Amino acid sequence: MPRKIIIDTDPGQDDAVAILLALGSPREIDVLGIVAVAGNVQVHQNATNALKILELAGRPDIPVYVGCERPMRHKLFTAEYIHGKTGLDGPDLAEPTIVPRDQHGVDYLIETLRREPTGTVTICALGPLTNLGMAFVKAPDIVPRIQEIVLMGGGLFEGGNVTPAAEFNIYVDPEAADVVFHSGVPITVVPLDVSHMMLTTQPRIERFRSLGNKTGVATAEMLDFFDRFDKAKYGWDGGPLHDPCVIAYLLKPGLFKGRHVNVAIETQSDLTRGMTVVDYWGVTGRVKNTNYLRSGDSDGFYDLLVERLSTLP
Ligand code: BDR
Ligand code: CA
Question: Does the reported pTM lie above 0.90?
Answer without folding.
Answer: yes
